[in-house]
Amino acid sequence: MKQNSKQKVGPYLYISSAWLIIGIIVFFPIIYTVAISFTNMNIWHWKDYRFIGFANYLKAFTVLDGGFVAALIRTIIWTILNLTLQIVIALGISLLLNTEGLRGKGVYKTLLMLPWAMPTYISALIWKFGMFQNDFGLLNQVLVKLGLGKVGWLNTDLIAFISCLFVNLWMALPYMILMFYGGLQGIDKGFYESAEIEGANKWQKLIYITVPVLKPLVMPAIIMTAFVTFKQFDIVYLMTMQTGAKTGADVNTIITYAYENAFITNNYGYSSALSVIIFIIIVILTLLNQRSLRKGD
């Protein structure tokens, strides 16, 4: 009897140390963040902070001008535009690469992969200072030589948003192209030959053969890209608010907005509430995604 009880308890003892580490690294920060979100902790109330209930959460949803709601709307637009453009452009380039008889495919694929292989920090700084800088950036130098005025690429909200969008597309497209191109390589050529016999044109073959066959193959990559884009931090931060000094434009996503409140304005209670809200949003999106995948199966 004692031996049986030891056999039952033994495995739990072996994994107890792992659970302890997980608890310290994962669960404790989450619990602590939730607790802090109900306080007024900031740089001025570091030790003497007090409980303020749901005030931080109410602030997040009631401050409309430049607050969390504006950042959330901007994040949704950012995600939709990025995902739509990536899918359309990646599909087009993949179809071109898949063209029979195209010379230099290996060279084209290598060049297309370079932005994806380059570290984000390096890419963002190249674009920020090499291309978008007001005085010596390449784009403004070209505009001046053409007799046009300089553009503040990162100084106004809309232009800065478009600039960040372009840089993110430049970096993310290679991965999506790789997924689409791999899917195209797996499509049986017999489908197209049969369609040609039936008199189908290129557009009909794309709509009724290519897209339906590609959909289950690239859907995981599309979903993953959507999550990564929704949680985007590095591009917006490096392009518009690196070292805590903004370029003049407000392009905050929900992640950079939470970061700004935590590490620039040092409003830890409010930023903790924002982190909890973001965590809940991501959990809901994850559950909806899993549910849709089950329905698809």
From TrEMBL:
Matching entries from Pfam families are given as: BPD_transp_1 (PF00528)
The answer to whether the entry has keyword Zinc is no
Protein name (Swiss-Prot/TrEMBL): ABC-type transporter, integral membrane subunit
Family of the protein in this entry: Belongs to the binding-protein-dependent transport system permease family.
- List the keywords (alphabetical): Cell membrane, Membrane, Transmembrane, Transmembrane helix, Transport
Transmembrane segment boundaries: 12-39, 76-98, 110-130, 158-184, 205-230, 268-288
| Domain spans labelled ABC transmembrane type-1 | 72-289
UniProt-listed InterPro entries:
ABC_transporter_permease (IPR051393), MalF_N (IPR035277), MetI-like (IPR000515), MetI-like_sf (IPR035906)
Q: What's the source species for this entry? A: Cellulosilyticum lentocellum (strain ATCC 49066 / DSM 5427 / NCIMB 11756 / RHM5)
Q: Per the record, what is one GO cellular component?
A: plasma membrane
Give the domain of life: Bacteria
Its membrane topology is listed as:
Multi-pass membrane protein
Q: Which GO terms describe its biological process?
A: transmembrane transport
Give the location in the cell: Cell membrane
Say if the entry is tagged with keyword Transferase. Answer: no
